[in-house]
Amino acid sequence: MTHLRWGILGAAKFAREHMGPAIHAATGAELCAVASRDIAKVRPFQDFAPGCRAVGNYDDLIHDDNIDAVYIPLPHTMHKEWTIKALNAGKHVLAEKPIAMQANDFAEMIAARDASGCLAAEAYMIVHHAQWRRVKDMIRDGAIGEVQHIQAAFSYDNSSDPGNIRNKAETGGGGLRDIGVYTIGGPRFAMDAELTGVNAQIRWHDGFDLTTHAQGYLGTATFSMYTSIRMHPHQEVVFHGRDGLIRMTAPFNPRVFGEARIELHQPGQGLRVEKFPTDDQYKQQVEAFGRSVNEATPYPWTLEMAQGTQTAIDEILTVATDI
Q1: Same domain, 46 and 115
Q2: Are 1 and 69 contacting, i.e. CB atoms less than 8 angstroms apart?
């Protein structure tokens, strides 16, 4: 298999603006079809990928012999169902985060993955960006000494869009599942550690979380984070060590929120800045997926890794007190 023939389940705005173009641009990938009950919604995909076919329903796409891999940008509550269906149909699967609504959903997905022999992964694009691999290496190599504290923040305000699936409890809405995967998963990836000793506070509205504060430990380091879908847009991650500090200024949406920069503060050496102006984490994610399928290279974000983040989210939701 020299290249992967991709299909997309649903003509979601994010797929149209980010992942569809990334699949089309990626080496070793071809965007072949988009499934939508409204065929007109496929036309914008065909504008940048003229060979892309419109398919009238999801089942037809996952059983299409001319499709090798499926990308799933459906509402959160549908990810597990369609991941398993696509795996059972013999398709490789890249499903948007969160790929499941709770940690115990993963056993069925992992079993379907293993039985199919296909690759299944959460579309956790940040681990494919060079800035996160660089931070992970810096921490491992002792650039800031033993990490003492980690803080992570991610916020935006979607109050003007009440119909958004993130503003509906029934579609898995709220900030914690939508962006808590980043404030928790990114530091987990960098530290190779699981979140323990959790306590949390949540501001709720109509059954979904508007703002979440959580604290705990990653290894021996203390950890604090917040997410919000009702605050001014901001994102930042700081690793504070005994011998220095690493600050990431656009850790989750580089080139959208701002330029990807790593600030390294060390005694006697002042501030050093590394920039990553050209990295496209979505395109790099598609290419890494293709290499894993075709060359059996290890994929950097397995279902088991995603399950660790969901376990932490589940615990936060269990122990949180109301704000």
Answers
A1: yes
A2: no
- Residue 31: what are its φ and ψ, rounded to 5°? -85, 110
For residue 1, the model assigns a pLDDT of 53
Q: Give me the pLDDT at residue 2, please.
A: 73
Pairing of strands 208-218, 120-122: unpaired
Domain end (from 81, 97, 123): 123
| 73, 100 contact by CB (below 8 A) | no
> Does 16 map to a domain?
yes
Q: Is the pTM of this model over 0.85?
A: yes
pLDDT in tens, 128-155: 999 999 999 999 999 999 999 999 999 9
Asked about 13 being catalytic, the answer comes back as: no
Q: Which amino acid is at 241?
A: G
Q: Which amino acid is at 128?
A: H
Do residues 82 and 163 both lie within one domain? Answer: no
CA nearest neighbour of 93 among 71, 115, 67, 124: 71
Pairing of strands 69-72, 92-95: parallel
Q: d(Cα 76, Cα 85) in Å, to the nearest integer?
A: 15
User: Residues 80, 85, 91, 97: which is the catalytic one?
Assistant: 97
Contact, 120 vs 303, CB < 8 A? yes
- Distance CA(227)–CA(294), nearest Å, equals 37
DSSP symbol at 49? -
